[in-house]
Amino acid sequence: MSTTPAETPTSAPDGGRRIAFVVGSGRSGTSTMSGTLQALRMHVPQPEVGADSTNPKGFGEPQWIVEFHERLLDRVRVQTADARPQAWFDTERPAMRERFRNELFEWLDGQFAEAEAPSSGRRTSELVIKDPRLVWFLGMWRGAAIRCRATPTYITMLRPVTEVVGSKQRYYAGKLGEVSRTAGWVNVMLHTERSTRDSERAFVRYGDLLDDWTVPVFELGERLHFAGVQRASAQDLRKVHAFIDPSLRRVQLTWDDVTVPARLREIAEASWQALDRLADKDGDTPEVRTTLDELREAYIDYYAEAELLTQSTAESARLEGMVTERDRAAAAAGAAGSMGEGDGLSRIPHGLRAMVPAGARRAVRQRLEARKGGEE
Amino acid sequence: MNLEDREDFAVRWAWEGGADEGRLAPGTTSVLRVKNEARSLPWVLPPLLRATQAIVLVDNQSDDGTPEVAMRVAREHGFEDKMRVFDYPFDVSRCGPEHLGTPAGSVHSLVYFYNWAFSQVRTAYSLKWDGDMVLTEDAEGLIHDLSWQLPGKDVIVRVPRHSLYVDNDRVAYLDLGLPNVEAYGYPMGPAYEHVKAFEWELRAYPEDVEFVRLPDGASLELKWLDSDEFAHWTAPEAFADNFRTSRKRREYELFGALGKGDWESWPHLHRIEAPEGVHVIDHVTHEWLPHADRDVFRAHRLGTREASQS
Fold it and tell me: Do A143 and B142 touch (CB under 8 A)?
C-alpha cells in the first residue's frame, strides 16, 4: 500500500465516514488504543494533549475535546469518574441544548473536512475520538455524527477494576480514595455499556492489546469496518509495534491490594466478570446484558442507601458551602468599605440572602452564633 | 370501577399491588392509543421499538388492520417480545364539546381510556406517543438514553413536533412555522394519572417536577392529505374560536390550502421532494431534518417561547 496521499480519502468499505469513539474508564488502555488507530492512519484531531510521566506515549486526546467536555462537566458539576448514577441524567441535559449541539457539530464537521482535504498527508474519512470524559456525552456525539453523515462506533477498553484503581492511586494526585475510585469505575463502566448497547461496538481487554495487539485490532477492524485497519500497510504495522510498549501495564493488583466495603467489592467484581465476557468472540449476548442490567440496578440501590446513610455529611457540606459564600460576600463588602453593624449574615446583601431558604438561613445563623460564642 | 361496571376494563395500576406486587420494572414503555393508523405505523413503531423497552398499543375500533400491522412491524424488526396489543372496544368521545359532556369515570371518556391504557404499563417510566408520530434518527438516540436514565426520577420529557403533510410517496410539506412542544414522557405513579380538561384529557404531575426538552426536529406528526385528519374532533367549529385550539385551527386551514395546491404563500412551510426510490417520510427523518440548517427552526423556537410566555 502506498504511503503517499491517496487520490480519495481512505474510508470504510461502505464508503462512508466513521468515528471510533474510544471509551472506558481512565487507565484502561484507552490512550494505547487511540494511538494504535492513529498509527493505522485514522485521524486524531489536532492538537493533542501532550504526553507526561503518567502517560509517556501520549494520551491520543484532542485538546479541544478535553476543554469542551470540561466546560460541560463544570456546568452540571459532574466529575470525570463520578460515582453517582444521577450524573448520567445530569450530563444528558446539555445534549438537549442546541447551542452545545451546534458547537460540537461544527467542530466535528471541520475535523472531517480537514482529515479528508487533499492537502492532508493522511487523507481519511475515519476519526478517532478519545477522552475519559467522553462517556458522559455520547448522546450529543451521536447526534453530531448523524449530522456529519458519519457512523458512530464504540471501542470499550477493559481492564480489571483493581488494576484501574491501583493505577489511578499511583499516577493521579488525588483526594479520592480506593472506595470512591472503585465506585466511580462501577458507575462509569456499567453505564457506558448501557449507553453503547444497540450500536456498532467492540470490547477489547487492555491485557490482550499489550500481549499481542494484532489479534484484537484485526478483529475490531473487521467488526467495525475500519479501512485504516483493513488496508494497513507494512509501514503502518511497524509504527504500531513501535508505539505499543508491553511494559505499559505497570500496575497489576488484586483485591488483596484494594480495600473497599464487601458489598461494593461484590458488585465491582461481578461487574468486571460480566464485562470481561463481552470481549470474548460472540460474547456480547442477551444473557450477559441481563446480568449487567441487574448489576446496574444493584449499584443504583446500593448508592441510594449510601446517600441516605451519609445525608448528614452532605447537609453539612452544603452548609459549609453557604458559609464560604457568606465569607466571600462579606469580604467583598469589606473591600468596598461598606462594612456595617450586625452579624456576618446581616452583612450579606439582601438579594443574595433571600435566595437562601429560610430554614437553611436559620441553621447558618445558629452556626455563626455558636462559632462567635466559642471565640468569646 | 368505571361507571358502566365493566369489571373486565377496570383500571388496575401496578402500584396498587396484584400479581407483580406493585413493583415497576426499570425502563420505559411507549403507550399508543390508536385508531386506523395502519398506514403510519411502519414509520412510527420501529424507532420506538429500538429506543424503549416495551410498547403498549391500544387499538380502538380500527377497521384498517391496525393491530395486525403493529404485530407484523414488531416481528419484522425482531422485537415481537416488546409489543403488547390490546383492544379497547368502546366508543370514545371526540375532542371538544362531546368530551366535555362525558364523565371521566366512563369507559367512553378520553380520560378513562388513557388511564386504562397506561395501567397496562409495567415499567417505571412511560412515553405517551401518538399513532402518527415519527421519531427522527437523532431523537431516537436521545430517547434510547433517557429510557434507562429517567426511570425513578420525577422528570417530564417535552418533545417538539412538526407536522408533515404527506401528498404522495415522493412529496410532502413540512410545517416549521407552528410552535408545538408537548410533554410526552412521564414517570409512572399515582401523581401522574390522567384527569379531565375542557377539550381533552391532560396528565397530572407534582409541582416540583423537572422538565427536559428534546431538540427541535425531534419528531414528525404525519398528516395524509388524502385522509380525513380531523375525524376525531366533534366538528371544525369546535376549534374555531378557542385559544387552546389555535394549533388545530392552523392545521385545519393549512390542510385545506394544501388540498388546493396552495403552499407557497405559507411562511416556514417547506415543500420536500424525496429522491427516486426513497419514501418522503424516510427522506425527511434521515436526511432532510438532520442536515437542515438549524435556522429553519427559528420561527418554531420563537413561537414556542412566545407561547410559553403567554
Answer: yes
Q: Are the C-beta atoms of B45 and B55 separated by less than 8 Å?
A: yes
Across the interface, whether the CB atoms of A92 and B142 are under 8 A apart is answered: yes
Q: Which residue of B has its CA nearest to A301?
A: B152
Pinpoint the alpha helices (H) of A80-137: 87-95, 98-116
Burial of B58 (0-12, 13-18, 19+ CB in 10 A): buried
Question: Residues A198-240: pLDDT tens digits?
Answer: 899 999 999 999 999 999 999 999 999 999 999 999 999 999 9
ipTM (interface predicted TM): 0.77
pLDDT digits (tens, 9 = 90+) for B155-182: 999 999 999 999 999 999 999 988 789 9
Question: Which band of pLDDT confidence, cut at 50, 70 and 90, is reported for residue B20?
Answer: low
CA A292/CA A295 separation, integer angstroms: 5
Question: B286: which DSSP letter?
Answer: I
* First-residue to last-residue Cα distance in chain B: 39
Residue A89, CA atoms < 13 Å, CB-side half-sphere? 19
pTM listed for this prediction: 0.81
Closest partner CB to B213 (pick from A96, A146, A147): A96
Tally of CA atoms within 13 A in the half-sphere of B61 that contains its CB: 8
The answer to whether the CB atoms of B215 and A143 lie below 8 A apart is yes
CB nearest A102 (choices: B26, B290, B294): B294
Q: Are B253 and B195 in contact (CB under 8 A)?
A: no
In this complex, do A92 and B215 lie within 8 Å of one another by their Cβ atoms? Answer: no
